[in-house]
């Protein structure tokens, strides 16, 4: 008899056919979630050790040679590659590794998702102490600023930055100050218009260092100036960046709403006073109702989760508009993308 058939008969005898089938269905549900966790961690480890990028560049890599060159444990590396081979992400055969189609796809648009999530990994690692009130976000746990900037840059250029850029281009803005500029990806996109000059400020040292490195590589230092600075120092910014006709802020304001809207409202009023002629172009995520996400469980689910765990408040769309209008600005243009829960506003 076929040995597999024999095994099925044996299992049916000891467990019963109906129960066996029900168990299989339930396990496959659980495995989907567990596998997502294991796969994500394996991908992070291969991204951080540089293997995935080398596979993209070279096509095939000898693992023993790679482990030796990067001082890695070959046996552990082989185990990870064997696992991902089983999931058809990689092909690992006779010591040589390459990307399968699925792996190549993961390294394209979805890569930003893995990078962004890696930025929040310290929060998920400490989720239980956070729940038990043993640790607090901001005091005992912090996200990785550089990975957050990298991930939001990678994801941003796929859609949100194009939306903001469209508003900048269509309004004819030429001198742009970007608050919380992250890895500069948005300003690189703006610079595709040769008439635009940009300034970026960000208060995170690691992010600014990373952005400076990218600026050098992009050969755009004559068009973009970046500095480490606090956007709340509005008066100083107005002296330095006197000539800007637009101030952009992509996904920055929500970081300051945990104690209500007063901080951002005061900030907006100060900006209006010191930059009376500049328009503000703001992109912010907006809260989607639970009933909506139950029907359409987009990536907004994860986005809402890691923002709320890190005290970043995402307002419903109506409250964003109320905040802008009560702070002295008129919303002259508004575009919403419910698919990603992101809104774009030109304020004057
Ligand atoms: C979610 S990230 C968005 C980065 C970038 N705008 C993008 O969309 O890719 C928020 C950025 O704002 C920066 N930031 C937060 N508070 C800031 C402040 N007070 N002054 C300047 N930058 C700030 C953070 O360091 C981070 O790079």
What key attributes describe this structure?
three-stranded antiparallel beta sheet; 10 strands; binds S-adenosylmethionine; 348 residues; alpha/beta; Arc Repressor Mutant, subunit A; single chain; 54% helix; seven-stranded mixed beta sheet; Rossmann fold
What does this structure look like?
This protein has helices at 3-15, 17-48, 51-58, 63-69, 74-86, 101-106, 111-119, 121-125, 127-131, 145-156, 160-170, 185-190, 205-218, 234-240, 262-274, 290-295, 300-309, 317-326, and strands at residues 60-62, 90-93, 96-99, 175-179, 197-202, 224-228, 246-250, 279-285, 331-337, 342-347. The strands form two sheets. The protein has a seven-stranded mixed β-sheet, with helices on both faces. It has two domains: 3-106, Winged helix-like DNA-binding domain superfamily/Winged helix DNA-binding domain (Arc Repressor Mutant, subunit A, Orthogonal Bundle), CATH 1.10.10.10; 153-347, Rossmann fold (3-Layer(aba) Sandwich), CATH 3.40.50. α1 (3-15) crosses α2 (17-48) and α7 runs antiparallel to α10. Helices cover 54% and strands 15% of the residues. The protein is built from 18 helices and ten strands. The mean pLDDT is 96. The longest helix has 32 residues, at 17-48. The protein is of the alpha/beta class and 348 residues long. The radius of gyration is 24 Å and the shape is globular. S-adenosylmethionine binds at residues 145, 148-149, 152-153, 156, 179-182, 186, 201-204, 207, 230-232, 250-252, 255. InterPro entries: Methyltranfer_dom, SAM-dependent_MTases_sf, WH-like_DNA-bd_sf. This is Methyltransferase domain-containing protein. Keywords: Methyltransferase, Transferase. Pfam families: Methyltransf_31. One of its GO terms (biological process) is methylation.
